[in-house]
């Protein structure tokens, strides 16, 4: 969730109509947001991450002009040709392959707009940009630079320039090692021996993406023409971000000019603000919503959400704005129809079938196990199902298995896969509580993902100077006795445990889990200083 700060009077200026603050606070949440806080004229609004076009007061005002029916329909922006060329050198292909660009002229830069620009940069970097890895935005004063521009990769010591927030020339390696932003984002370039850079025709450095701009293009209140570059690893993401920022500036009166971005195999004239055309079947929308709206009513609702829309035979032809990246299926248009109609207007209907809820067997069994663990003096924890290969395998001295579930587009480095074990989660909890007294006895009853299925596990752990195999075996015997389960032990080859100080748990001829004293290397990997034992049981197999 992104929290956007805005000034009430600035919002009213952009809306073009005086609307009471109370009415805005009552209506904005109906668009799919939440009022975080209100202090005087300062409003903090929390928007869902699927609407990055609302990450600025300008974008919010544009949406509200439709929602309040002050200006329904597609917001249209003229794009003029600038003749500016930005050439993409093949050297960036392996480093940071994509760049998009635009020029916005006649922008009145003041404190309000600078604040809004900085905020939308920060929010887009964090969400769409995955902390600048996937997207980084450069905003430049156009006065002191001359096209054509070139985007290429150079050696770390090949180019020197004065970066923003600094006073002396530095080469790219020095920036990564000594500049505040360089140290923050050096990880984005750590696997490369060449770094991306944007130069003008005079050899001046506009930007060292995704790290820092050059001081020569610093935006001030004297700036009127703003040059934009966006670099990253996904062309579509860059285009959406470019469209969001240029239309945001156009809402402040800026005039949009295109840039010809020349790749080795193609040339793109950007920004491309042509809407995407989608077809929506009214009967489909009514079936999903349980409504009886006419096609004409749906057209009005879509226009209220700032789409272009018209009846086209048995369908509705919808023009989706170029700054909306969340509309990828007809169901997304159905959602916009319901938002415009008002969730508060949905009439509750009793279901046609009467059903009685019954607790699942695994939940009932889980409850018994949880009570037994609490009775043995253990504290329950709850960890994330999302984890990382580093936590699940490397820190536990394990090799990566052939099959586990990876996250396609991870937001952070510590959430790149789904966990196959809860043991690392408990170790992280012990690491976070090193300042607490020992012993620390903790457990979790939760899900891990094996193959494509959730598996319920009990994981337990204890840390203190005398934590041992004998102690965890005694706990296991007590648990199994209370559950009236016969079990046996066999040798265990789990890499996380000390050889000879661990065992597999066998019930009905099947291995249902293991336990043992954690290997000293694992203990060190989690910065712990005392012996630790661990236990993990698949509860469905035990049940």
Describe the 3D structure.
The strands form 6 sheets. Strands 4, 5, 6, 7, 10, 11, 12, 13, 14 and 15 form a 10-stranded mixed β-sheet that branches. Strands 19-22-23-27-26-25-24 form a 7-stranded mixed β-sheet, sandwiched between helices. About 30% of the residues lie in helices and about 30% in strands. With about 550 residues, it is of the alpha+beta class. The mean pLDDT is about 90.
Q: What would CATH call the architecture of the largest domain?
A: 3-Layer(bba) Sandwich
Structural class: alpha+beta
Largest sheet: 10 strands, mixed
In percent, how helical is the residue content? 25-40%
Number of helical stretches of at least 4 residues: 16
Integer average pLDDT: 92
How many E-type strands? 27
CATH level 4 superfamily of the largest domain: Phenylalanyl-trna Synthetase, Chain B, domain 3
Number of domains: 4
Global Rg: 29 Å
CATH class categorisation of the largest domain? Alpha Beta
Low-confidence stretches at least 5 residues in length (pLDDT < 50)?
none
Here the CATH topology of the largest domain equals Phenylalanyl-tRNA Synthetase, Chain B, domain 3
Distance between the termini: 39 Å
Spatial shape? globular
- Binned strand content: 25-35%
């Amino acid at each position: 969730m992104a929290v956007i700060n805005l000034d009430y009077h600035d919002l009213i200026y952009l809306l073009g109509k005086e609307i009471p603050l109370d009415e805005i606070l009552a209506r904005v949440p109906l668009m799919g947001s939440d009022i975080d806080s209100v202090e005087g004229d300062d409003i903090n609004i929390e928007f869902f991450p699927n609407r990055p076009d609302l990450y600025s007061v300008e974008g919010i005002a544009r949406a509200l002009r439709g929602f309040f029916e002050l200006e329904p329909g597609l917001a249209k922006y003229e794009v003029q040709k600038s003749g500016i060329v930005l050439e993409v050198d093949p050297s960036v292909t392996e480093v940071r392959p994509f760049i998009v660009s635009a020029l916005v002229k006649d922008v009145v830069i003041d404190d309000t707009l600078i604040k809004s620009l900085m905020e939308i940069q920060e929010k887009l970097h964090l969400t769409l940009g995955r902390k600048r890895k996937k997207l980084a935005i450069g905003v430049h004063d156009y006065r002191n630079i001359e096209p054509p521009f070139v985007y290429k990769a150079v050696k770390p010591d090949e180019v020197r320039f004065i970066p923003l927030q600094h006073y002396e020339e530095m080469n790219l390696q020095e920036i990564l090692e000594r500049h505040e932003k360089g140290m923050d984002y050096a990880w984005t370039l750590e696997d490369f021996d060449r770094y991306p850079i944007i130069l003008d025709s005079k050899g001046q450095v506009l930007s060292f993406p995704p790290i820092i701009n050059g001081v020569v293009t610093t935006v001030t209140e004297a700036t009127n023409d703003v040059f934009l570059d966006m670099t990253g690893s996904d062309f579509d993401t860059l285009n959406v971000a470019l469209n969001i920022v240029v239309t945001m500036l156009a809402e402040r009166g800026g005039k949009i000019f295109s840039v010809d971005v020349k790749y080795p195999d193609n040339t793109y004239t950007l920004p491309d603000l042509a809407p995407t055309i989608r077809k929506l079947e009214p009967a489909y929308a009514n079936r999903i919503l349980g409504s009886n709206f006419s096609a004409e009513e749906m057209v009005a609702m879509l226009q209220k959400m700032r789409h272009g829309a018209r009846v086209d035979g048995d369908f509705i032809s919808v023009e989706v704005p170029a700054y909306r990246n969340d509309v990828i299926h007809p169901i997304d248009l159905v959602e916009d129809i319901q938002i415009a109609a008002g969730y508060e207007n949905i009439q509750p209907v009793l279901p046609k079938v009467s059903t009685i809820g019954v607790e699942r067997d695994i939940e009932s069994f889980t409850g018994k196990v949880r009570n037994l663990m609490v009775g043995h003096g253990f504290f329950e924890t709850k960890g994330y199902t999302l984890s990382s290969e580093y936590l699940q395998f490397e820190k536990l001295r394990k090799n990566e298995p052939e099959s586990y579930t990876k996250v396609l587009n991870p937001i952070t480095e510590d959430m790149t896969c789904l966990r196959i074990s809860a043991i690392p989660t408990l170790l992280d909890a012990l690491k976070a509580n090193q300042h607490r007294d020992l012993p620390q006895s903790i457990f979790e009853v939760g899900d891990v993902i094996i193959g494509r299925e959730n598996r319920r596990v009990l994981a337990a752990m204890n840390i203190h100077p005398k934590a041992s195999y004998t102690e965890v075996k005694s706990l296991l015997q007590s648990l199994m006795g209370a559950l009236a389960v016969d079990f046996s032990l066999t040798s265990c080859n789990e890499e996380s445990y000390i050889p000879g100080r661990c065992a597999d748990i066998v019930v009905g001829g099947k291995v249902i889990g293991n336990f043992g004293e954690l290997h000293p290397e694992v203990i060190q990997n989690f910065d712990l200083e005392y012996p630790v034992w661990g236990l993990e049981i698949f509860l469905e197999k035990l049940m």
